[in-house]
Amino acid sequence: MNSFSLKPFYLIPLVLLALLTGISGGWIRLGSMTFALASGASNHGLLMVGGFLGTLISIERAMVMKKRIWLIIPLLTGLSSIFFLINLDQAGMGALLAGSFGLSMIMHFQTIRHPFFHSILLYLGAVCWFIGNFLAWHFGMIAAGSTWWIGFLLFTIVGERLELSQFLPVPTWSKQALGILLSLFFIGLVLPFHGVGNEVMGFGILLISAWLLIFDMAKVAAKKKAQFRYIGIGLRVGYLWLGAQGLILLFMESHPLFYDMVLHTFFLGFTFSMIWAHAPIIFPTIFGIRETPYHRLLWWPWSLFQLTLLGRIGFALAKNYEWRKIMGVSNGYLILVMFALMAGIVIWKIKFTSTNSRESDQNHTRSNSQNSTLRINA
Q1: Cα–Cα distance between 167 and 121 in angstroms, integer?
Q2: Which residue among 78, 99, 241, 336 is least packed, with the fewest CB closer than 10 Å?
Q3: pLDDT in tens, 105-150
């Protein structure tokens, strides 16, 4: 394949493969054998964070570069899912290490070109992803890299929020305060997790959540209508999930499902809320389309996603494993429904636009024909 001919659309099957198999693996880990794919269960975190989220973010950042050859980076991370699914784990880890190093290089060049605070955060996020992948490979344990993957997504998402709002008036001191809070989180990331690391991380995350709720422009968008309201409320609910993770890190370490709740309040509650909210902004840019994947129908599966996730975490707190499983499986299906519905909305809008364009052209042709007839008759 000529690397210069790569397009984002070509990578969608790999993104979907990682999502589908990662979710099915999560169901197995909950105790549901709906799709008994053992390699999906054992590599659940690698598929979801690396094959799915990492590939999406790498596509987004590669599209900022002038040359399309940088799309090789998300191609590598996307291919890692295939390696994991056919039990070539070392090849899969190699592809993820190469891809996350490649994303770090992309952000290195972008930060040199645009040395802003948000660029530095995106750069740091990519480096965290590489470190997490390296630790998971070196120790042979996904848990060794999971906190660094949290750093990858937290720095990336906060960086993107600052990038999108860089021209809005925000007090200088507030950005300085955010820098201190992110530094506190990073210190917790470096410290031993089961020492004081989780508490320092939790305190930092809780304060970062509060900062986003107070200073992020989502509070303005949430008061508007239609798509802006959807984006604003979606973001603010995500910030609440981030705060919930901070509280769990601080106060729930003795709970038997502590690790599970820490991961899923962040990766499902915070991260997927960010995906749903950013989709109308990011997806058209990535895929070069004008139509946004927003329609008021999205509110239904979005609300059910939040409710089932709340149920999963609530039943985990209550140590009710059966209902935790039911809520978790339902939550996975709703993720798939959300993506399917967004894809359907975009396809419908494209066809609707195309139909209207053809009708407009036909009306224009008929109008010209009638005008010509009138001129002849005259």
Answers
A1: 17
A2: 336
A3: 999 999 999 999 999 999 999 999 999 999 999 999 999 999 999 9
